[in-house]
Amino acid sequence: MAGVSLGFTRSPGRYFKILKTTSQAWREINKSTLANSIQRLYESQLVDYKEIKDGTITIVLTRRGKKRARPITFKLDEMKIKSTKKWDRKWRMIIFDIPEDLKQAREDFRLRLRQVGLHPLQRSVFVHPFPCDDEIDFLIEFFGIRRFVRKIEVEKIDNDLHLRSIFSHLLK
């Protein structure tokens, strides 16, 4: 908990007080990495934080975070996105900008997106008509690329008819 407090404290005095009370192991943590990890959790809307009057911050799981705290289990080679009985007319877009130093992860991620059933709109933009958060989150975590991937839900795409024909076997 001290590491979390370090990452969010806004008071230099409080920062040094926390440091004094932590063990040597906590002091060796890369504070930048910790802060970035917490920020990614916050951006994923899995956690939120509440500031207490003494300047400390408590991180809590959101409703979505509590739901997602359950384990996500898939057989990687058998993953497929499931269709629902009725299409909600929303497109799920996955966009990513994975840097060159993670080229292998980027290529593997792209390959897996195709294998689970997404269709490429561009090299780094994929689409599917059905909810796929669990599958995409699993792949994102598997490849360690959370900060480079965004998930978007849209109601209109200018090539909707073309996409419907591609997914016609799923859209009934």
Would you give an account of this structure?
- The chain has 2 domains: 2-68, Orthogonal Bundle (Arc Repressor Mutant, subunit A); 76-166, Alpha-Beta Plaits, CATH 3.30.70.
- The strands form 2 sheets. It has a 4-stranded antiparallel β-sheet, with helices on one face. Strands 1-2 form a two-stranded antiparallel sheet.
- α1 (2-8) crosses α4 (31-43) and α6 (103-116) runs antiparallel to α7.
- It is built from 8 helices and 6 strands, in the order ααααββαβαββαβα.
- By secondary structure, the protein is of the alpha+beta class.
- The chain is globular.
- Residues 1-7 have low confidence and may be disordered.
Instruction: Tell me which CATH architecture of the largest domain applies here.
Output: 2-Layer Sandwich
| CATH fold descriptor of the largest domain | Alpha-Beta Plaits
Give the termini separation: 50 Å
Q: Would you identify the regions where 5 or more consecutive residues have pLDDT less than 50? A: 1-7
How is the main sheet built? 4 strands, antiparallel
Please give the share of residues in helix.
Answer: 40-55%
Rg from C-alpha positions? 20 Å
Give the strand order, joined by hyphens, for the main sheet: 4-5-3-6
Tell me the structural class. alpha+beta
The rough form would be described as globular
Give the SSE string: HHHHEEHEHEEHEH
Q: Return the average pLDDT rounded to an integer.
A: 82
Level-1 CATH class name of the largest domain: Alpha Beta
Distinct helical segment count: 8
Percent of sequence in beta strands:
15-25%
Number of strands: 6
Number of domains: 2
